[in-house]
Amino acid sequence: MALAVNEIFYSIQGESTYAGWPCIFVRLSGCNLRCSYCDTQYAYDEGEGMAIPDILNRLQLIDCGLVEVTGGEPLIQEETPELITRLIDHGYRVLLETNGSQDISRVDNRCIKIVDFKCPSSGESDSNDLTNVERLTEQDEVKCVIADREDYIFAREIARRTLCGCSRANTIHFSPVFGLLEPKQLTEWILEDRLRVRLNLQLQKIIWSPDRRGV
Ligand SMILES: C[S@@+](CC[C@H](N)C(=O)[O-])C[C@H]1O[C@@H](n2cnc3c(N)ncnc32)[C@H](O)[C@@H]1O
Ligand SMILES: Nc1nc2[nH]cc(C(=O)O)c2c(=O)[nH]1
Ligand code: SF4
Ligand SMILES: [Mg+2]
């Protein structure tokens, strides 16, 4: 059995509560969605087959204890939960970035799940499985990527639903679609509403050229 892997690279975590930490990224191939703004379209079908021991060997050469499994959509591959458990058993702290359409209860409870519920401008908000809100643990995080006011209002409802006691998660990230919504505008909306969410700017796009791969 093998996983379709698009790329493995070492960089600075640019998103989530772990932003700023050195991190290894395992980007899996394939996605069930087509978000209008997706910055990772190259992962839709490019990739090579790698068995879990090959992935572990590659990571061992890098020497970093934090790993993020991302994509594409990592949870559309049947073997991804097994990869995550094996990484954790080998001592890695594992983050999973997933698009909110897949049942996260198949994933090891020790994994920190970052669940990105899609807003209307993505064209994929009907794909959200909002029962995932109830499946989150205290260490998991919710994320919404926002392009305009309509997205913001949609995300505000998800934030309220997450914080109202329907969920054990208490970290919610609001991130502007890069180049489409000014961070200043999103910040003003958050402050105006006294919303208990975190502004997330993609550090990698500030540090490097925004369309650079592998960072
Ligand atoms: C490429 S996706 C891979 C993981 C999963 N498919 C998902 O959507 O969460 C990783 C993250 O990048 C975000 N993202 C993609 N394109 C973006 C853009 N143009 N601006 C801001 N965030 C973006 C996604 O919303 C997601 O949170
Ligand atoms: N530096 C960096 N941090 C990230 N955090 C989440 C990413 C992703 O594409 O899932 C990502 C990415 O592509 N690069
Ligand atoms: S779910 Fe993630 S990888 Fe898939 S299209 Fe949307 S942003 Fe891109
Ligand atoms: Mg990325």
From TrEMBL:
Pfam family, one: Radical_SAM
Superkingdom of the organism of origin: Bacteria
Cofactor(s), by name: S-adenosyl-L-methionine; [4Fe-4S] cluster; Mg(2+)
Catalytic activity: 6-carboxy-5,6,7,8-tetrahydropterin + H(+) = 7-carboxy-7-carbaguanine + NH4(+)
InterPro entries associated with the record: 7-CO-7-deazaguanine_synth-like (IPR024924), Aldolase_TIM (IPR013785), rSAM (IPR007197), rSAM_sf (IPR058240)
Enzyme class: lyase
Pathway: Purine metabolism; 7-cyano-7-deazaguanine biosynthesis
One annotated GO biological process: tRNA queuosine(34) biosynthetic process
Residues annotated as binding Mg(2+): 40
Residues at which [4Fe-4S] cluster binds: 31, 35, 38
Molecular function terms from GO: 4 iron, 4 sulfur cluster binding; carbon-nitrogen lyase activity; magnesium ion binding; S-adenosyl-L-methionine binding
Family in the record: Belongs to the radical SAM superfamily. 7-carboxy-7-deazaguanine synthase family.
PANTHER family assigned to the protein according to its UniProt record, in alphabetical order: 7-CARBOXY-7-DEAZAGUANINE SYNTHASE
Subunit structure: Homodimer.
Physiological role: Catalyzes the complex heterocyclic radical-mediated conversion of 6-carboxy-5,6,7,8-tetrahydropterin (CPH4) to 7-carboxy-7-deazaguanine (CDG), a step common to the biosynthetic pathways of all 7-deazapurine-containing compounds.
Name of the protein: 7-carboxy-7-deazaguanine synthase
